[in-house]
Amino acid sequence: MGFWVTTLIFLLAGVAASLFTLLCCNRGPSTNLFHLTLVTTAVICCWMMYAIVYLSQMKPLINPILSGE
């Protein structure tokens, strides 16, 4: 459940950042598209980093070796 909740938070943050960019950085169609692309790419990259780290902890590649002591 934690993965999906955090994914929803990233989605909401992406929508909020996109709206903020469109409202505050209104300098022309080409510049607006560039800013919107940067914000979208940044949010997707942050979510992918979170998802990779979270999912890699579910099934680690290296298992710890427990000693019998």
For the structure shown, list the relevant keywords.
69 residues, mainly alpha, V-type proton ATPase subunit e1, 2 helices, membrane, transmembrane, ion transport
Strand pairing plus helix content: what structural class? mainly alpha
Overall strand count: 0
Radius of gyration: 19 Å
Basic shape = elongated
The run of helices and strands is HH
Rounded mean pLDDT is: 89
The span between the termini is: 36 Å
Number of helices: 2
For the report, how would you describe the main beta sheet? none
What portion of residues is helical? over 70%
Contiguous uncertain segments of 5+ residues: none
Oligomeric composition of the shown chains: single chain
Residue fraction in strands: under 5%
Characterization of the model:
Keywords: Hydrogen ion transport, Ion transport, Membrane, Signal, Transmembrane, Transmembrane helix, Transport. It is a multi-pass membrane protein. Residues 1-17 form the signal peptide. Its main location: membrane. Belongs to the V-ATPase e1/e2 subunit family. With 69 residues, the protein is mainly alpha-helical. The chain has 2 helices and no strands. It has helices at 2-24, 29-56. Helix 1 (2-24) runs antiparallel to helix 2 (29-56). The longest helix is centred in the middle third of the chain and has 28 residues, at 29-56. It is elongated, with a radius of gyration of 19 Å. The mean pLDDT is 89.
List the helices and strands and how they pair.
Elements: H1 2-24, H2 29-56
Helix pairs in contact: 1-2
Provide a concise account of the structure shown:
This protein is mainly α and 69 residues long. It is built from two helices and no strands.
